[in-house]
Write a structure and sequence with these properties.
alpha/beta, Glutaredoxin, seven-stranded mixed β-sheet, 6 helices, about 20% strand
Length: about 180
C-alpha cells in the first residue's frame, strides 16, 4: 500500500470514527444529559423521600416526564385549595406524560389522612426537614407554602411559583410542555 493510500484510509477511518462519536453523543429530547441541568434541577433529581408506605422514592425516576413538584402541607389553606385541581389535572394529562409529585412538609399521620380524604392520585412523599431544605435549594427563599416547580421533559425548571396556583395558570405553563 502506498503512503498516500494509507493516509487516505486512516483519514477515512478517522472521519467515520468522528461521525459515529457525534451520532452516539447527540443529545435528544428523550435522553437528557445530567451535565445540562441547572444546580437546582440537579438537586431535585438527587433527592429521595419516603412515600406514605415507607418506600424510598428517588425523584429521578420521573425524569423524562413533565413534573409538577409541589411542596405543601395539610394545614396550609392555599395548598388545600389547589390540590383538588391537581388531582383533576393528573387524571386528565397523565397519559400525555404529566406527573404531579407532592412533597409534604408535615408528619406522616396528618399527610396520610389528608391524602386519603382528598383521594390524591399522584405520588405523595414525606419531605420533613429534607423537604424544606430542598425547597430552599430550588428557589423558595421565603420558605412559604405552597411552592411549586414545573420541570420539563429535559429536566429544566420551566417555572417556579410561590403561593397557590389556579388550574388556568398551571395549564398555561404545563400544556406547551406536554
Amino acid at each position: 500500500m502506498t503512503v498516500s493510500r494509507t493516509i487516505r484510509a486512516v483519514s477515512l477511518a478517522a472521519i467515520i470514527g468522528l461521525l459515529t462519536l457525534a451520532a452516539c453523543s447527540k443529545q435528544t429530547p428523550d435522553t437528557p444529559h445530567a451535565a445540562a441541568l441547572s444546580p437546582a434541577a440537579k438537586a431535585v433529581f438527587a433527592a429521595r423521600f419516603d412515600d406514605l408506605d415507607g418506600a424510598l422514592q428517588p425523584l429521578k425516576q420521573w425524569r423524562g416526564k413533565v413534573i409538577v413538584l409541589n411542596f405543601w402541607a395539610p394545614w396550609c389553606p392555599p395548598c388545600r385549595k389547589e390540590i383538588p385541581e391537581f388531582i383533576q389535572m393528573q387524571k386528565q394529562y397523565r397519559k400525555q406524560g404529566l406527573i404531579f409529585v407532592g412533597i409534604a412538609i408535615d408528619k406522616k399521620q396528618p399527610v396520610q389522612a389528608f391524602a386519603d380524604e382528598m383521594g390524591m392520585n399522584y405520588p405523595v412523599l414525606l419531605g420533613g426537614v429534607k423537604g424544606v431544605a430542598l425547597s430552599s435549594a430550588v428557589g423558595n427563599r421565603l420558605g412559604g407554602l405552597p411552592y411549586t416547580l414545573v420541570i420539563n421533559r429535559h429536566g429544566k425548571i420551566a417555572a417556579a411559583e410561590l403561593g397557590g396556583l389556579t388550574r388556568e395558570k398551571l395549564e398555561r405553563i404545563v400544556k406547551p410542555l406536554l
